[in-house]
Amino acid sequence: MITVLYLSYDGMTDPLGQSQVLPYLRGLSQHGYKIHLVSYEKQDKYKKHRSHIQQICDSAGIIWHPQDYVVGGSILTTIRQVRRMRKIAFYLHDKHTFSIVHCRSYIAALAGLRLKRKVGTKFIFDMRGFWADERVDGGLWRLKNPVYKTIYNYFKRKEIQFFKESDYTISLTWNGKNEIESWKSLGGKIPKIEVIPCCVDLNLFDPNSISADQQEALKSQLGIEKGEYILGYVGSIGTWYMLSEMLDYFKVLQSEQNNSKFLFVTGEKPEFIVEKAKEKGIKEKDLIITSVLHHEVPIHVSLFSKSIFFIRSTFSKKASSPTKQGEIMAMGIPLICNAGVGDTDEIVLKYHSGKVIDTFSEDAYRVAIQNKEIFDPHKISEGAKMYFSLEEGVKRYLHVYEAIHE
Asked: Alpha-carbon distance 145 to 335, whole Å?
């Protein structure tokens, strides 16, 4: 049996861990890989969801080694946590002798590359995006500050090492893969790259599993009246999602269709969204804001007439695959999105699953809204099955695991 060490600086008790780590590891475990999982858990979520995650891991034969994540720590705190991850990696390797170290993003790769160099473990760099550039594009690292400039340069150097020394690299997008392969800084040593987008559990996000009675009950609970048009948003808002522009779109929608409401399925604070909406002249009564567990997301998405997400288009976003895209498409809901983010717009156009906005303007919004093109929910769902299937994602990871052991 091949033994794998999976390193993640993200927590499994976070929604992302539950949707974008555990399902893949469960699939790989079913194909005979013995997986040890190291993750960094925020204490509030860990206390709340620990038993649930432990049950998932136990049922899949995954050995979980949760670590404490220090929230709001300094750069020195992060450095200490990286050092701790390295120590844990070597400690576990001494006990279990891993054949593969699979690293989720850059922080984990610091430990994984060290393990490869010291003991020869096969190294998978699951990059998840251009992390250092995301920190700069998102305004978290301001390069005018010499400290952040130094940190940024360090990670850009390490990035090249990760690509050159990885036995395989995972990119979320073809756009990101093409960008990497164009870099002269690789010195002609192009890494082996497999493209695996953020996949979706099609058994969970299945429109056929939701009855009309369930939908009507939820509409009553949320205060949605018969015949109302629901523009929907799902997920966190955070650094990248353009709330102001999405609200502008909704305001134009209201002028064209006065029975519209904007449903947010998000963990964001409702008062934050309400305040931004009021600045736009949007009434609070036209907003519905709710927070739900991951397994409750599909029925909420099923109420959407259309879904929207606008994401800041920057260099780092070439490598981004929004998790919500596959989930929304799987439910057969048409998308309104912007161009210039990963492969998002190409997927929407290829599978005829919505509208792509090229400019953030009232005129562009109005044209998109007035276009009465009819979208086939079944074809949108089929597009999700073809591109975002979790089963297909697991197959691609299996290909990578098998390729480095040929």
From this structure: 39
The secondary structure of 165-198 as a DSSP string is H-SEEEES-HHHHHHHHT-GGGTT-PPPEEE---
**How would you write the pLDDT of the chain (406 residues) with one tens digit per residue?**
899 999 999 999 988 898 899 999 999 999 999 999 999 999 998 999 999 999 999 999 999 999 999 877 677 888 889 999 999 999 999 999 999 999 999 999 999 999 999 999 999 999 999 999 999 998 889 999 999 999 999 999 999 999 999 999 999 999 999 999 999 999 988 999 999 999 999 999 999 999 999 999 999 999 999 999 999 999 989 788 999 999 999 999 999 999 999 999 998 999 999 999 999 999 999 999 999 888 899 999 999 999 999 999 999 999 999 999 999 999 999 999 999 999 999 999 999 999 999 999 999 999 999 988 899 999 999 999 999 999 999 999 999 999 998 6
What is the crossing angle of helices 75-96 and 105-119, to 10°? 40
User: Structure pTM?
Assistant: 0.91
Whole-number Å distance between alpha carbons of 103 and 123: 8
CATH of 207-388, one of 3.30.930.10, 3.40.50.2000, 3.40.50.510, 1.10.340.30: 3.40.50.2000
**Residues 41, 13: contact at Cβ < 8 Å?**
yes
Quote the tokens at residue 188.
């002609």
* CATH code 3.40.50.2000 region(s) in the chain: 3-199+389-403, 207-388
CATH 3.40.50.2000 fits 3-199+389-403, yes or no: yes
**DSSP letter string over 119-182?**
H--EEEEE--S-HHHHHHHTTSS-TTSHHHHHHHHHHHHHHHHHHHH-SEEEES-HHHHHHHHT
Q: Give residue for tokens 């400290």.
A: 147
What does the block give as tokens for 54? 């432990």
Distance CA 301, CA 297 (A): 6
Tokens at 401, concatenated:
């695991």
Sign, Cα dihedral of 86, 92, 98, 103: negative
